[in-house]
Amino acid sequence: MIPVSQVWPEELARLYRQKGYWRGETFGSMLRERAQAHPERIALVEGETRWSYAELDRRADLLAAGFLAEGLKPGDRVIVHLPNVLAFFPVVFGLFRAGILPVYALPAHRITEIEHFARSSEAVGYVIADHQDGFDYRELATELCQRVPAVAHVFVAGEAGPFRALDDVSRAGETAPAPATGPQPSDVAFMQISGGSTGLSKLIPRTHDDYIYTLRASAEICGLDGDNVFLVVLPMAHNYPMSSPGVLGALYAGSRIVLCPSPSPEVAFPLIERERADMVSLVPPLLLVWLDAAEQTTHDLSSLKVMQVGGAKLIPEVARRVRPLLGVQLQQVFGMAEGLVNYTRLDDDDETMIGTQGRPISPDDEIRLVDDQDRDVPAGEPGNLLTRGPYTIRGYHNNPTANARSFTEDGFYRTGDIVRLTERGYLVVQGRAGDHINRGGEKISAEEVEDHLLAHPGVFDAAVVSMPDEYLGERSCAFIIARGEKPRAVDLKRWIRERGLAAFKVPDQIVFVDKFAATAAGKISRKELRASLRAMLAEQE
Ligand code: J2J
């Protein structure tokens, strides 16, 4: 079994158990208990298909046995690269039950990212949909298997082509033995992908114990119970729609999940009306689209009660429009796949709901705000947010260099966010210290994109920075010093796409410059350079 790369110290682990945060549940047992308590209740809706809790439980069992019969072993890693389709659920619960670890990729990820996940997690398997929105994931799988031969198993939801259909794996599971022993609650259950502020994404190991705690607490904070209908519009492999409270929080609470094939109001609004959905999570740019559409819609959205908005900063002017236009209770969520999640509470006053990003889930989430020398800042002042607690990781998987940078010696995670604390202990996000771009909730590492730009023969130097965007909050701008004849901006954008990166990493804007600023001492650091370019862009606004 894969070890937790850096575990909580024993005395803290004991405390978290004593306090009832970690209750010794696993994902497998969690689903089984729900299926036994209310077998006929509908768990999942996709189009005309409805699966009860018992049905999901049965399918997860078949896949658990099937995956092992295919030759996968407990502790193996399997990349799960699925859009919002029903198959996602039996796949991940099947893997959980077999003790195999899903590594979650986003639907937008392409070969370069997937290859990196495969290598860094030493994955032996890859689960895909056949195609989605005109993109054929089987072609990506073919390329992945060539580049990383260790990926010996490809499973497909739908038409398998040269690979193995999940339906056949399920069939094999009918006659194969069930997993002999399941995973332990303290084992790593899966790996999430970091937004990646420096360079490539890192792997985030989460245990059954710590993650299920966030599900239980989030369901409670968000008021989820067996009567709720949660509409999922964001890609549910992302930590936010997965767990805050997300689809797994909804299953924890015994709610119903409705899969929405597209986040656009034309698709989502009729579904809300038809399924009487009462909860949905959005990112700020999507909220803007929904607010505009709500002004005109003829669909009945009156079933909606609570709406989470998070992933990127929601400005108060927009937050204020939510209740009057959509008639729902707004709940701000400020979280991260590494752990810490903050929510405004449903009984908070309007100003707190509109003007803050909430407070931590757990009384034992420790928060420190420090200056660049790690000294505590005075009360009420903004500072770099450090955190540790019962569900914040102590280290990335197998990455000592990143761990030395991202964690303090006493185990605090350096979030890279600059926040301020209100007197009542609510967090207000002020910005980011790190060099990532938060493009409407999608995180882009400046360094990663720069490295790909630098590989272009017409690029001598490149610096990627965020620039303000009315709709996305931030978008990306690449400053380029050409080598010889200037390449065309469209060619550079195509270059990034052709390098096999997610489309959201393609720079929104490209600006050619003759040189970058230097200090008297010579070269300035990348960080300073990006800061000065950001300042220049802000001045132009
Ligand atoms: C400003 N910045 C925010 C917010 C996240 C719940 C919600 C979000 C995520 C997530 C998540 C923000 N205002 N409301 O995993 O469980 C920025 C911060 C943070 C980074 C984490 C969840 N909510 N952010 O977005 O791992 O900069 O998780 O450190 O993708 O998003 O990104 P990610």
Verbal overview:
Keywords: Ligase. Belongs to the ATP-dependent AMP-binding enzyme family. Residues 448-523 form the AMP-binding enzyme C-terminal domain. Pathway: Siderophore biosynthesis. This protein folds into 3 domains: 49-183, Rossmann fold; 221-432, 3-Layer(aba) Sandwich (Rossmann fold), CATH 3.40.50; 436-540, GMP Synthetase, Chain A, domain 3 (2-Layer Sandwich). The mean pLDDT is 95. With 541 residues, the protein is of the alpha/beta class. The termini are far apart. A 9-stranded mixed β-sheet has the order 2-1-13-12-14-15-16-17-18, with helices on both faces. A 5-stranded parallel β-sheet has the order 4-3-5-8-9, sandwiched between helices. Strands 19-20-21-22 form a 4-stranded antiparallel β-sheet, with no helix packed on it. The chain has 19 helices and 27 strands. Helix 3 crosses helix 4 (88-98) and helix 3 crosses helix 7 (166-175). It is globular. A hairpin with a 3-residue loop joins strand 25 (459-469) and strand 26. Bound molecules: ligand J2J. Ligand J2J binds at residues 195, 239-240, 243-244, 310-313, 332-337, 341, 357, 415, 417, 429, 432, 438, 443.
